[in-house]
Amino acid sequence: MSNQKKIIECPCGVILEGQSDDAVVAAAMSHASEVHDMDLTRDQALEMARPA
């Protein structure tokens, strides 16, 4: 697990940020569920994450 700030750019244009892997994954999973009505796994979110 990394403690470097990460971002995920959703295909819809929203940019999600977190100070750690856990934070950006939680943001991505919440966004996917609330906005897109889809379940995103931790692994899927981490694949999309990149250093900020």
Topology (elements, then pairings):
Blueprint: E1 6-9, E2 15-18, H1 21-36, H2 42-48, E3 50-51
Q: Report strand %.
A: 15-25%
Class derived from helix and strand content: alpha+beta
Q: Write down the overall geometry.
A: globular
| SSE series | EEHHE
Distance between the termini: 16 Å
Q: In the residues, how many domains can be counted?
A: 1
- List unreliable stretches of 5+ residues: none
- Over all CA atoms, what is the radius of gyration? 10 Å
Number of strands: 3
Number of helices: 2
Helix content: 40-55%
Mean pLDDT: 94
Q: Main beta sheet: strand number and arrangement?
A: 3 strands, antiparallel
Main sheet strand line-up? 2-1-3
Short synopsis of the structure:
With 52 residues, this protein is α+β, with helices and mostly antiparallel strands.
